[in-house]
Amino acid sequence: MSSERVPVELCKGINGLEKVVLREVRGSSAEVYLYGGQVTSWKNDHGEELLFVSSKAIFKPPKAIRGGIPICFPQFGNHGSLEQHGFARNRVWSIDVDPPPFPTNTSSRAFIDLILKPSEEDMKIWPHSYEFRLRVALGPGGDLMLTSRIRNTSTEGKPLTFTFAYHTYFSVSDISEVRVEGLETLDYLDNLQNKERFTEQGDAITFESEVDKIYVSTPTKIAILDHEKKRTFVIRKDGLPDAVVWNPWDKKAKAMADFGDDEYKHMLCVEAAAVEKPITLKPGEEWRGRQELSAVPSSYCSGQLDPQKVLQCS
């Protein structure tokens, strides 16, 4: 019998929810739940988990899964009658058996295409016609790629306007030892201060209290340096001009039923997003937003790590 890894496997996950397991030949893997179209695991070829999922996450509809990569659509944040961060993260997606051609540069067979269309119930709370296609792929080197394509399928000439984020929860050894590079000197909207606009002053972002900021007009690459694990996450993004940085810290952590009291120390959300300026599509138009995550060893030792080098050599 061949010992070759099955690149794509559909199986049952927690509470019987369906999930897809992606495996790359060198040993990296990812898990995607059809509930939420949500990545809940991404492991490197040593089997180390790179994403954070709360030990108290509730894998039961209609509650969104706390951790991994929830998809915020059709809104990020809390506006109007829609639930916070929209409804894509608590709908059951379908496997897309006939996706339109995907210009892709990966030779990987470890990918899955999912699709979400509005139900009649959805049309009552958000009366818009769309097709949301999501491809989750593992690259040969273990990189995790998410590509979203959202098309306005209105037959009534109705525009489609939305905001969006990949709400990625990274697993970190200790939040007080982590720094984020690539967002310095940029403007951000501070959600803890009524979305007031400020300019980032530090030469890198470090953490010693709650943070909830939307950085605007951000570069296509952002690095998260985890000194203790000697690991750097590199986020590359396309079509997503903003970046949300979030950690709830101790008080908020204690207030969340599906989040452990001390778990804030071991996670950081850095989210590729389109929030400040909503995206509007005319009927027939399609938007694409992509993020690629890689985890590279970082030779951080006492001196400063040159952020340019991290971003170039990755």
From TrEMBL:
Coiled coil: none annotated. GO terms for biological process: carbohydrate metabolic process. GO terms for molecular function: carbohydrate binding; glucose-6-phosphate 1-epimerase activity. GO terms for cellular component: cytoplasm. Substrate binds at residues 66, 84, 89. It catalyses: alpha-D-glucose 6-phosphate = beta-D-glucose 6-phosphate. This is glucose-6-phosphate 1-epimerase. Transmembrane segments: none annotated. The active site is at 167, 271. Its EC number is 5.1.3.15. It is an enzyme of class 5 (isomerase). It holds the Pfam family Aldose_epim. Belongs to the glucose-6-phosphate 1-epimerase family. Keywords: Isomerase.
